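pinned: reference chain
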Amino acid sequence: MKLNDIATVLTSLFFLTTVPVTVNAQTDKKNLQKKGSLQVDSAFKELYLNSFMVPYSQFEDLQDCKIIIKTKKLKTTMTACPDILSLFLGKKNRRYIIHVNNDENFDGVLLSEVPEDARIGLFAHELMHIRDYESRKVTGVIQRGIQYLSKKGKRNMEHYTDGLTISAGFGEQLYQWAAYVLYDSNATENYKNFKADIYMSPVAIFDRARMVE
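pinned: its structure tokens
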């Protein structure tokens, strides 16, 4: 097997653990509601769409991206990834899927528990993942997938995305999110330690945000 084939397989396995291969199941279509290029399920629309629109409305480069937001059980609060099949349909046809965790037994932080400003910071962070993917060709997205397979690579990617979020003007909200998870949430210590290892600390976010102001 060639190196490029191995990379493709690894990345496919990574993305397939977090997003469905297709999003055109009839039950999904019935549950999704359109708002411009966004498609959101009814639960997200009712509870979170107004907050989501705060950062989304400011990112003009993402307005034409096909973004689907759905709720499901996850091992984290939210994820944002490309639909793997859409990567090979041309950049104009790419789809991105944001999943929101709705597992009531989750040992981390559910979106329903998060204060408004912190929630906006998390939304901005997930949208910066999509901005990063949008800036890359298929091979670049594959490289991101491979990077995410190691702890060091995941940490570098999430720190980079936190930096993008701060540069986009949402440093204060991102600080609120990071501080809430580590200091105020009811997440387990294992989950908090994972977040502390992978993402920028509240202090680092605060300091970087002050430099951007």
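why pinned: The chain has one domain: 3-212. The longest helix spans residues 151-184.
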